[in-house]
Amino acid sequence: MRKRFEVAIIGLCVTGLMGYASAQVTGDPEPRPIWTTMDSDADGHISRDEMRANSLQRFESADMDGDGAVTLEEFQMAREAARQARLAARQERLFGQLDTDQDGQISAAEFEAQNVQRRMRMFDRLDSNDDDMISAAERAAVRAGRRPVRGPRPGRPSHDS
Q1: Domain extents for the chain?
Q2: pTM higher than 0.70, yes or no?
Q3: CA angle, 84 as apex, 7 and 54 as ends, to 5°?
Q4: Which of 48, 65, 80, 82 has the most beta carbons within 10 angstroms of its beta carbon?
C-alpha cells in the first residue's frame, strides 16, 4: 500500500516537472513554488535524490497521524489542502496583476485597465462580421469550436488605449 502511494506522489511530482519544463519552453522566468521547494540545494537543478526526498516528505505530510500509512481520508485531506494552496497562490498572482500600483486594492481604473480592455479584445475577436454585436450564430460558432482568431483590423477602434 505504501508503495502505491509513493508511486502516486512521484507521479504528481513528475506531472509538476512537465509543467515546469513547459514553462521553460514558453519563457516563464519564475519557477513554480514546488520546484523551488524541491531544489533543496538551490543550484537550479533537481537531482534524483531531491525528487525522492520531496516525494517522501509529501508522503509523510499526508500521513497526518504518523502511523506510516496514508488512509483515503488523509489522502483526500492532503489533496484538498494542496488544491487550496494552489488556488490561493493563483488568486494572489491575479490580484497582484490587477493591483498595478501595489496599494493592496484594485481600483475601478485598475480593473477597467485590465479586465474591460481584455473583454473588448475578446468581443472584437468574436464579432466575426464586424457589426458591433455578437449574434446567436457567432455564439454558436464559438460553442462549435470555430472561434475566429484575428489580429487588429484596419478601420476598427482599438480598445487598448
Answers
A1: 2-98, 104-161
A2: no
A3: 35
A4: 82
